[in-house]
Amino acid sequence: MATKTSRPRAASSAPIPPSDSSEPAATTSRKQTQAGVSSAPAVTAVEMGARQREISVSEFFTKNRHLLGFDNPRKALLTCVKEAVDNSLDACEEAGILPDVTVKLEIVTTGQTPVAPSQATRFRITVTDNGPGIVRQQIPRVFAKLLYGSKFHRMRMSRGQQGIGISAAGMYGQLTTGKPVKVISRTGPRAAAHYFEVQIDTKKNEPLVHENKQIEWHQPQGTEVTLEVEGRYQKGRASVDEWLEQTSIANPHVRLTYRTPEGETKEYPRSYHELPPSPREIKPHPYGIEFGALLKMLQDTKSQTVAGFLAGDFCRVSPALAEEMCKAAKLSPTTKPRDVKPQAAEGLYHTIQATKIMAPPTNCISPIGEKAILSGLYKQIKGEFYTAVSRPPAVYRGYPFVIEAGLAFGKGPEEATKPQQASVPLAEGEDQGHESELARVIRYANRVPLLYQQSACSTFKAVLSTTWRNYGVTQSRGALPAGPMVIFVHMASVWVPFTSESKEAIADYDEIQKEITLALREAGRRLGIFLRRRERAASEFRRRNIFDLYIEEVVAACNRLKGGTLPTERLKAQLHKIASSRTGGLKTDEALGKTGAGPEGLPHSIIVTAEGIEGETEIAQQAPVSQADSPAPMPPDSSPTPKSPARGRRVVKPTPVSVNSKATGKAKGAGAQQEMFAAEPVQAKKAAPRRTSPRKTSSGAARPTRKRT
Q1: Which end of the chain is more exposed for a tag (fewer CB within 10 A), N or C?
Q2: Whole-model pTM?
Q3: Could you read off the pLDDT of 110-128 as tens digits, one per residue?
Q4: Cα–Cα distance measured from residue 265 to residue 256, given in angstroms and rounded to the nearest whole number
Q5: How many helices (H) and strands (E) in the chain?
Q6: CB atoms within 10 A of CB 30
Q7: Residue 162 is part of a domain; what is its CATH number?
Q8: Are 503 and 366 within one domain?
């Protein structure tokens, strides 16, 4: 008995492992809880290992669809339209076809009662193009497999980059409505049209084909994609309507037809009838690779020597330069790439970065061009002044890129000539209405509008950092410039550094920020020249009108003094010439758009006045103006000639608003006028009245000149 009682005492004093405990499970759990130990059962390493499994990219983006731009219904509707239109434009341009794209939005109603577009929650999106079509075998993977495409591995400019967009739009429709993606494609007039209904198997990231058949289709060639998604339609900023309008500005060679949910059809006609130059694929630049990428390229190359690898797998590396880099890295040029050790590869990498290599070629980029930018801005935006700037190619991380900027200023001559309301006294701290109107910034990357995450974009930061006050535009500290102005910025590159997979903002690289700032400064300088020239010319024109008011009285008085024998018309013409020469002459008329001549000193610019168009008149005549009240372009031969105003009529040219004017018509003397309007044309000098000085005799006395008969 003693032996039996001693064992429980020993057991009570020493802890017993859980497997040897004879106490009930509830008692043990209660004791562990009281001691502060979690009641969850422990998991062994074997059990944790059994839970590990591969995650499909489709499953990842199903849970994180906000990374692709599907974080709210309104933005999701825009993203679906954007991805489908981008694919259509890329396919047409690569095939050398002028794109004709039709976008149709329809409301899908579940009941019998119709729903207003602003109240609808489900839409059917149909995008049709006239592109080359898609071969039948590739259709399921193109529209129902993430990270599948032809653009990721190519070093050339394109709108799409990752092979996610249109498949992600189909996945969003599958998640929200359960409907498959419907695709019709035909590769030529003699080929059959194929109809598919596909969805994504999110566990395997593979397409599921629900239907595949041949059908009759009215189009001889092209592709039509239909998605049914949950969304919200609302006009205004960051809407489908604004995105299509901005797409038409940056792609004037595209003809867009948009059928709204209300049943309205909007046409964005083609204003530029030439395709942009087709970009060519290039090899990676040595400055754009990292050490890990170099190691992988050494293992995957087909070259037999390191020198051949450097010269054949990179651009801008000649065989002679490749041998020099191998010698500098203390590596034999004939070494096989797979035999290069990591230490030797690291030395080769540092040698490449230290070697001076020519910048990569720019034929892989297809910028919009100044003329096309002017055509797009003039077609869609009403204003008085348009200009476009294209910067020379630059490089970031070995990737070439080009920055282009455009600017539209003013409200159009019709708005400028409207009678303004009388100014009302303002309270302290209150400002005029036009001053509170901030400039609008439209951003593009590879011809695609960027509507979201504006404050995170390098483009917007460059606009804020530009001192617009130097160019005659009002600007508060840390804010956008004030006034009726639209600022256009486009980045074209083989690889645009977006901040996220949704491709909504450009990353803030120093090289990119610098090029955007330089382009904006050049556009601002041209705007400043226009504003100063217009303001000075308007001041001189007002002075001329004052002179003209008194010419009739002066001529009548002189005629009375001469007893009615004075040639009044001749005297009147001479006085008009004197008044014109004293107030700037033809320079004033040119600055006010009264001669039809181009804006001198403002290349790639358009100036719109009530009398007509100056500058790139051919572009303005080619561009069909969408607004009904926009000015009609005038042919170059029908430019109006300046006429003297009638007696008693004072013509005042309105000046642009939101301009910091320091000189308001206070130019004094002929010296100031010559300084303002220097380099007058030769014909202006010929038109000025010739002065005849009396001849002097040998004695120094003046002798009257004899007129020739």
Answers
A1: C
A2: 0.70
A3: 777 888 998 999 999 999 9
A4: 10
A5: 21, 18
A6: 12
A7: 3.30.565.10
A8: yes
